[in-house]
Write a structure and sequence with these properties.
Rossmann fold; 2 domains; oxidoreductase activity, acting on the CH-CH group of donors, NAD or NADP as acceptor; NAD; alpha/beta; 5-stranded parallel sheet; UDP-Glc/GDP-Man_DH_C; oxidoreductase; 8-stranded mixed sheet; UDP-Glc/GDP-Man; binds nicotinamide-adenine-dinucleotide
Length: about 425
């Protein structure tokens, strides 16, 4: 195996291309985005991922990784294009379809075609294989077609691409083994062989498991608000049971995986996937739960100044896709009563449709600071700056992540412990 063609150079495709190139493969990365291609050929990247700029620079400088707008002949093709959902929450597999069509003119017998994109069950059989068949190949004999879902954690992608267990499911056992052998050359974790549809479902159930469990924690946060209980304490104590692991509540579930993948199952089995759909609904309701608390907290102020901290769907990354924080910010911004400042040290201005300000600008004169992402920066906020700069030093931590503790002059609420917010709304300083 010498040459690999990676289609789609985003958060998954680019690190994958870089890791194969670092292992000595000749890799051509393909993207429809001209900027991605031009920057990559200069050894530069436009996404944030720990260690990736250095690895990309090394493999581009050494000539092992190049970028192109068009695929080229290769021994293996790896497709890692987006699989978003439509407005009606059904899967949009158009990118997978067009990436497969783009590869077909460069295919030859004996090649391997792997889809890494997360896809609804049966997509390999019903979407990918027919395209390859229509080009004149026997999809079960001429080409090894397989799905190898990606399960890396942003922020640790370069490590997990190599160390995680990989699931490879082909259209035939031979295709599976051939595709698995591609990964065995870069992966130190196990590479497990299965069928395509099992690989598709296993990936979807991994994220669905997490989504359903987060929904349970979020439901607990809401129940706790009604009953006057501290959900964080409840979780801590319940998790002392050796077989219980309740997840943490938060402002909602975002990102391209957890907030999307469960719908791929609901779409294919709507009558059976009841808990999965309900969990999506619960998690989707959390931004409004956060807004409700903000309204209660600021009900006694005339023109509350609100600092919103963190826009990404999880901490220490720059990815704002499907982020509940964005929904919260947009809803707060839409309320003319509020004077809003938004701060996120990981997000660039061009990523969002509203202005971003520095930490200092955001907290100056603020009545309420709402933490929406668990960036490391927010785990070590200098409380003295809040005490001296905020008009009313009140913090609402929706990720239960800050180092800030309730003390004289500083009020701290956490998502699972909002009892009595209304009764102790922030008072105007001259009241
Ligand atoms: N980001 C993650 O953490 C993660 C984790 C596991 C699985 N996944 C899955 O991996 C897949 C890719 O996700 P991502 O985060 O890398 O997406 P991304 O949006 O970061 O990158 C996708 C890239 O594909 C390019 N592209 C789109 N259509 C193309 C085409 N026809 N030909 C060539 N390039 C094309 C886009 O321009 C973009 O650069 C998705 O199915 C996603 O669900 C992502």
């Amino acid at each position: 195996m010498q040459k690999i063609c990676v289609i789609g150079l985003g958060y998954i495709g680019l690190p994958t291309a870089a890791v194969f190139a670092r292992a000595g493969f000749s890799v051509v990365g393909v993207d429809v985005n001209k900027q991605v291609v031009e920057r990559l050929n200069k050894g530069e990247i436009i996404i944030e991922e720990v260690g990736l700029p250095e690895v990309v620079k090394e493999v581009v400088d050494s000539g092992r990784l190049r970028a192109s707008l068009e695929p080229e002949e290769a021994d293996a093709f790896i497709i890692s294009v987006p699989t978003p959902i439509h407005e009606d929450c059904t899967a949009n597999v158009d990118y997978v379809r067009s990436a497969t069509e783009a590869v077909v003119p460069y295919l030859k017998k004996g090649d391997v075609v792997i889809v890494e994109s997360t896809i609804p069950p049966r997509t390999m059989d019903d979407v990918v294989a027919p395209i390859i068949e229509a080009a004149g190949f026997n999809p079960k004999e001429d080409v090894a077609i397989a799905h190898c879902p990606e399960r890396v954690l942003p922020g640790r992608i370069l490590i997990e691409l190599v160390e995680n267990t990989r699931i490879v499911g082909g259209l035939t056992p031979e295709a599976t083994t051939k595709a698995a052998n591609v990964y065995r050359q870069i992966v130190t974790g196990d590479v497990i062989e299965t069928e395509a549809v099992t690989a598709e479902m296993s990936k979807l159930m991994e994220n669905t498991f997490r989504d359903v469990n987060i929904a349970l924690a979020n439901e607990l946060a809401k129940i706790s608000a009604r009953l006057g209980v501290d959900a964080h304490k409840v979780i801590e104590l319940a998790n002392k049971h050796p077989r219980v692991n309740i997840h943490q509540p938060g402002p909602g579930v975002g990102g391209h995986c957890l907030a999307v993948d469960p719908y791929f199952i609901v779409e294919k089995a709507p009558e059976e996937a009841l808990m999965i759909q309900l969990s999506r609904d619960i998690n989707n309701s959390m931004p409004d739960f956060v807004i409700e608390q903000i309204i209660k907290l600021t009900s006694e102020l005339k023109e509350p100044k609100i600092a919103l901290f963190g826009l990404t769907y999880k901490g220490n990354i720059d990815d704002v896709r499907e982020s509940p924080a964005i929904e919260i910010v947009e809803k707060v911004l839409a309320n003319p009563r509020y004077d809003v400042r938004v701060h996120d040290p990981h997000v660039r201005d061009e990523q969002v449709p509203f202005p971003l300000v520095s930490f200092e600008e955001a907290v100056k004169g603020a009545n309420l600071l709402v933490v929406l992402a668990d960036h490391n920066e927010f785990k070590m906020i200098d409380k003295n700056v809040l005490l001296s700069e905020m008009e009313t030093p009140v913090v609402f931590d929706t990720k239960n992540c800050t180092n800030l503790e309730q003390e004289e002059g500083l009020t701290v609420y956490r998502i699972g412990d909002v009892t009595g917010l209304q009764a102790i709304a922030v008072k105007p300083i001259n009241s």
